[in-house]
Amino acid sequence: MCTRYIPPEMATVERFWHIGRHNPPTLWPAEIFPRQPGPFVRAAPKAELERELLVGPWSLLPFDKRYATCNARIEGIETRATSRRPWARGQRCVIPALSFDEPCWESGRCVWWRFRRADGEPLSLAGLWSEAVDPASGAYLPVYAMLTQNADADPLMRRMHKPDSKLPPDAQDKRGVVVLEAADVDRWLHAPLPEARGLVRLAEPGVLVGEPLGAGAQRSLEAG
């Protein structure tokens, strides 16, 4: 599962996802780990705006260590405690990213790889959003999580993550994020549940490219 990604700057988010310049100048880290604040785009509640930008912790229920998760598995999404209500309510979002990182264990040790779109465009990653109560202030905060799907059939993503010795090679349940094409963003945000679920699929071959990170970045991730 993805636990680190690089978000675009505000200007890129406004331009690429067509959310205008009415957004507050909220900053987010140059690289985002679970529970850190990050940007996500959702359907705007006001009719005159199709999309709006929010910033909040990357984790559903981030203040509850028992159930907090930065990823939401599409399998069982209708019944899982952290995802069933956002999914039923159509609280879907798009997570802007320039790249994301995954661990590869083909060498017998963890080697982090970085993935991006081959065409150089930003990534639109499918997600869910919700609200969580900050126990310190009592205020409601917007939160979000990435959707993940089985990636055993993906020739690139199935190479990632540590193999489970108890499972056969063709049933490892390797996970992958859901990459939306630009033409499908509004469908993901606004469509009925059955249509939205149809957008949860592996990226076409050649859409993503990946390569191992340099030694410095490897050490940084291992330390984190």
From TrEMBL:
Q: What EC class is this? A: hydrolase
- Known EC number: 3.4.-.-
Tell me which family the UniProt entry assigns to this protein. Belongs to the SOS response-associated peptidase family.
Under what name is this protein listed? Abasic site processing protein
Return any one Pfam family short name.
Answer: SRAP
Keywords linked to the UniProt accession: Covalent protein-DNA linkage, DNA damage, DNA-binding, Hydrolase, Lyase, Protease
Query: Which GO BP terms apply?
Result: protein-DNA covalent cross-linking repair; proteolysis
Recorded GO terms, molecular function? lyase activity; peptidase activity; single-stranded DNA binding
